[in-house]
Amino acid sequence: MSLAAESHGFLSPTGVEIAFLLVGLVTFGAAIVTVTTRQLVHAALWLVVTLGGLAVEYLLLTAEFIAWVQVLIYVGSVVVLLLFGLMLTRAPIGRSPDADSGNRWAALTVALAAAAALVWVVVDAFRTTWIDLNGPAAGSTEVTGASLFQNWVLPFEALSVLLLAALVGAIVLSRKAKADTATAPGTAPADRTPADGSDKEGTR
Prior knowledge:
The protein is mainly alpha-helical. It has helices at residues 3-7, 15-36, 40-60, 64-88, 104-125, 141-151, 153-182, 189-203. Residues 1-6, 188-193 and 197-204 have low confidence and may be disordered.
């Protein structure tokens, strides 16, 4: 271990570590606003900030490939899909009282339990794993891409089918809403026919 590594301690963080902490706080705050706001469009936009913050964190961890995958897939595809779903289903632009189900405490309990389980699984899986930061890079874009498209092809295909199903569902809901609007009282052609008939009988 080098002299710089020995002199560096927990109480003397580097600029990268400080930036990592600040970006993490901003990302955490954006995630909280995403799940607590009652405006659906604002929730989607704050989700962009959250996913973008995660991409910056990957960049600070020198994982450039994962950072660009985060930007292209999540920020560039998932968020666009959500916005298309909001537009096709004619979601309200302003505050929506339906966005709050009243189960915030139950949702908070489930979220904390899921976070605790995730932290426990990660710590237990990598408890004895050590990374030599001064040694050669353990992975590269070629190795990551090969592992991604060889061992994780099925999850990626399942995700693409899920996103396609969400888009098709949004289109179906929008067409159903248009059909309900067309058959509303006073707007359908069938509702105008009796009125025309009664007018004719009245003239007779």
